[in-house]
Amino acid sequence: CSANLHSRNNIYMASCSISITFATPLLRFHLQILFELRSLILDVHLLGLEQFEVMLGLDDHKNVVLFLCRGVINSRHLKHIFTGGNMALDFIFFPNTNIPMSLALPYPQFWTLCGNTLTPRRGVFGKTGDLQTILCVACTRDQITYSGTLSGDVYMWKGLNLTRTIQAAHSAIFTMYACEEGFATGGRDGCIRLWDREFKGISKVDLTGSAHGYANLSVRSVCWHGERIVVGTQDGEIFELVVRDREQPVLLTQGHGEGELWALAVHPAKAIAVTGSDDRSARLWNLNEHTLLSRCAAEQGVRAAAFSPDGAHLALGMRDGSLSVLRVRDMSEVVHVWERHAAIHLLRFSPDGGYLAAGSLEGPVDVYSVAQRYKKVGDCGGNIGGAIAYLDWSLDSSFLQTEDSVGQRCMYHMPYGKLVTDKEEIDASPWASWSCPRGAEVAGVLPRYGPPRQLMSLDASVTGGVLAVGDGLGFIRLYRFPTFQKGSRFRRYIGHSAPVTAVHWSHDCAWLLSIGGTDHALFQWRFIPEGLHPTESDTLADSNSEESSSDQSEMAELDSDIEQDMQNNVMRQVYKEDLQRLQKQGKEKGQTFASQRCERPPNDSLRLHFVHGYRGSDCRNNLFYTQTGEVVYHVAAVGVVYNRHTHSQRFYLGHDDDILCLALHPVKDYAATGQVGRDAEVHIWDTETLRPLSILRGEHHHGVCALAFSADGKRLVSVGANNENLVVMWEWKRGEKIASARGHRDKIFFVQVNPHNADRLLTVGVKHIRFWQVTGGGLTWRRGEFGGVARCDTMLCAVYGRSDDLSYSGAASGDVYVWRGVALLRTIKAHDGPIFSLHALEKGFVTGGKDGMVGLWDDSFERCLKTYAIKRSALAPGSKGLLLEDNPSVRAVTLGHGHILVGTRNGEILEVEKSGPMTLLVQGHMQGEVWGLSAHPHLPVCATVSEDRTLRVWDLSENHCMLAVRKLKKGGRCCSFSPDGKSLAVGLCDGSFLVVNANTLEDVLSFQHRREHITDVKFSPGKWFFSHYYPFPPN
């Protein structure tokens, strides 16, 4: 049973064999507790093979959670205990009982489990011992408890009462283990003591005096089983002792101690690597024997390392800005240089061995001459925008390329550091190594869509044709080298729990080495070339994760609409809920103007009357009929209930930021809407009264992109719009979370709950479909199996069929995929282009796609009964506006009250008669920002212009419709009517502007004499002049 360190913590249970062996004595995993995150799991104990599992938190509340476990998969939250902020350091069950005991600062607590209730009682010290911090605990079968204290004493407890004190067992007792033979304890003094079952001393082993011991060695973990004892220390060593020969401990594995691990280098000709850490040590490792060759103590923390090309010298960069060069044969110092005051975190010898380049956090790269006893001969300081993050030498040692922390890549002539400006000279330079994430050779590490990943380190093996990348999430990714196409295919490997600060290939490309900054671990990965079959042992220890291949790589170009959906980012620097905090900070800083008299607000007020617009450009399936025949949709931060008979609107105004998704309750006229926000909210509200029924928050960050009700309406599923794409199932009336799990690393477009089983649901998105099952307090998933029926495609929408295991999904190719369970049965060609909407009817289905077609299908999805083309010629006379174009992309489709309701990407809502005619109900602008607005000087008319490259004129009377529209070559930023209302001036984003006829929108004149966008334009009160404003470019 294991637990992880994360803002959302998980406990994992798995069955394992009885015997456990180390894959290699070289340090692989070393745990460290970090207190900077919201919470984490400190300890887990199981009662034999039984039911109870305890989780101790390290969050601010230090809570204890008890789970009832029924097998590996099924578990139930049994009890949540609030400790009042006291940290619980350990938690045990008495053998063969359900009675737990915990150690909480500064006293022990004994718990009694009765039903679902845990009742604590404090231990009574009496006069037998002093009240002090207790660090560990062990117990016997007769319910006698022994605890280790900070002072080094052992306390013996009978029931709740302290009955005996064994003094000065250690200087401080960090660990205690009970077994059939007796007890084993370990402490700060570096000693192991063995005790019999009556807790009488048997023997003592001092690890500090052993062959591998050292001063200040501290024992943190001990296990005694039969003839063997295993000991773990604070600095990452694991010792094994044989009871009969306990004075000769064997060192199994070791690693770095406290601080961050940043320095890694490999020998140019031998299977040797060096690591350096903030623990002020540099260590040489034998990669074949997995042993430590030597350890060198340093005066400062080591942040960088590099071997000379002949392997004779080892350069170390220190935290204080100094540079030390050692002889590898005996680790003696050759020279010590101090040129900088910030940490040296990059070191590279030139391929010919003549120079050493050192990059520091100050920015410039210093160049040292090896022949002149590491005298500084140049520096690369020009045109650097931040600290140097990467550097590489050319193969002939003539050039050095760098990349700084702001992403600026530069090249310099060596050794004097003159900046290279000739592009042909840059392109013609072959490189001895490649660690910079920018450049044509490594373009594939950047995603094709979306923001770039947080890359920490790169290393290319030219001979092996592979590129290793370590990222800020602790993943190792393996690419082909060179990799020219963005979003190239890769394999992903998991192991590190911290950002991967360095990766390096060994000299013969047999091993890949990686280090984690705060997990203190050096990982040694075996490289298996293409075509070479791994051995049986390699297969058993396969490190390849299940999601190793990029779902976006090496695939056909995505449809332009889907690409824009993927690039839509709801993350913002400031959210609306931040405004009150920022205003309060402004007042605290004295930024108010006391001299200005605060006036009372006006008695007049505003009431929202009508909204022109529908968010269809980047949303889908967000349009529904209510039971009374009204239409529910959203635009901006407003939930709209539209009466199609009276052409009037009512509004839900509970949101304070953009609404991204909408779902309708299957039984009652309730709507659920999810918005953008730092702590994104989901509102469930009544479409009749427009009052909120429940507000769900606390789970999603940045936004909620998809919602779905269960068939009975009691549950609601939401999907987050951040990097985790968290899937959460709610009991929305009570506002309680039922289960949650990370959805997918790629964008999720849609979620649907199984109408036959509320514990099942599916999600679809970029190159994936997942089928979910509620399990205990979590969600487990299975990936859709495409088999040989069809290729894996991006899924945009989905519905369930008439049976529990039958489902349908709409793909980017225009096919409908039919699923039985998780297996793909067949595909049906439904549209020419992506299918954005799919809706299940009582008998059949209705689909909508990018081709501007709506299709009605039979209940087996085998035959299309009828199709409807969205065209301007099909508009009924009563339409409230004009279609922008024929066959607009259909984003939402539903059927009810004898009509088909259609929402388009162009922001239009249409109602289609089954016989064919269609009525335009509402429309608005598309994607991009709307900046230009001008009211007609005499008529109830206004004009708007947007970055969607359209100029529109609106009727503000009771008709509430669009009177005219014109497509522009560029997006617009401003507009203004002339004083007589006959002309309309429009400022565009490219610095040009137009004057058009206000009635026909035809050009009167146009010209351009600026390069920046025109932000405002105004006519003078007379007839012949107007002025415009544009932002001046920075000097």
TrEMBL record:
Keywords: Microtubule, Repeat, WD repeat. One of its GO terms (cellular component) is cilium. InterPro entries: Beta-prop_EML-like_2nd, Beta-prop_EML_1st, HELP, Quinoprotein_ADH-like_sf, WD40/YVTN_repeat-like_dom_sf, WD40_repeat_CS, WD40_repeat_dom_sf, WD40_rpt. PROSITE patterns: WD_REPEATS_1, WD_REPEATS_2. The keyword Repeat applies. Residues 261-526, 930-1023 form the EML-like second beta-propeller domain. WD repeats lie at residues 263-295, 828-858, 943-964. It holds the Pfam family Beta-prop_EML. The keyword Nucleotide-binding does not apply. Residues 544-557 have a biased composition (Acidic residues). Residues 536-557 are annotated as: Disordered. It comes from the Eukaryota. GO terms for molecular function: microtubule binding. Residues 648-911 form the EML-like first beta-propeller domain. Belongs to the WD repeat EMAP family. This is EMAP like 6. It comes from Eptatretus burgeri. The lineage of its organism: Eukaryota, Metazoa, Chordata, Craniata, Vertebrata.
